[in-house]
Amino acid sequence: MITRITRGRLAADTEARVFSILRTAAAAQPMLPGMASMSLSRTMEGRDTVLVAVTVWSDMTAMTEALGTRWQEPSWLPGIGECIEAGTVEILETVAASTTLEQLAATG
């Protein structure tokens, strides 16, 4: 499994607009092939609101095929990109998951 974490610092006074777009899109848009899950969250860094999008993929191939050649760059839905002042992407490879932890425990 591959976890992709995208963070974006929102411009001042854009939070309501951004979260409205995200809620509408998340409810209407089916998951991409190979995407196991997605969550959209926010956190505060001082006075700044930071959007955090976490997607979990079956493997690197599925993620790169779905996202294209710019998979290492932050990407946003139409209407959101202009509200992001700065963004980052982090890619994590799963080494153990809840379904494998029981198996690991059994092996000692």
Question: How is this fold's topology laid out?
Answer:
Elements: E1 2-10, H1 15-28, E2 35-45, E3 48-57, H2 60-67, E4 84-93, H3 98-107
Antiparallel strand pairs: 1-3, 1-4, 2-3
Structure description:
The chain is an alpha+beta fold and 108 residues long. Helices cover 30% and strands 37% of the residues. It has one domain: Alpha-Beta Plaits (2-Layer Sandwich). Strands 2-3-1-4 form a four-stranded antiparallel β-sheet. The longest helix has 14 residues, at 15-28. The radius of gyration is 16 Å and the shape is globular.
The coarse silhouette is globular
Biggest sheet details: 4 strands, antiparallel
Unreliable parts: none
Content of β-strand? 35-45%
Helices and strands, in order, run as EHEEHEH
Separation of the first and last Cα atoms: 23 Å
Number of E-state strands: 4
CATH class, anyone?
Alpha Beta
Residue-averaged pLDDT: 89
Summarize the structure.
This protein is of the alpha+beta class. It has helices at 15-28, 60-67, 98-107; strands at 2-10, 35-45, 48-57, 84-93.
Keywords:
alpha+beta; four-stranded antiparallel β-sheet; 4 strands; 3 helices; globular; 30% helix; 108 residues; Alpha-Beta Plaits
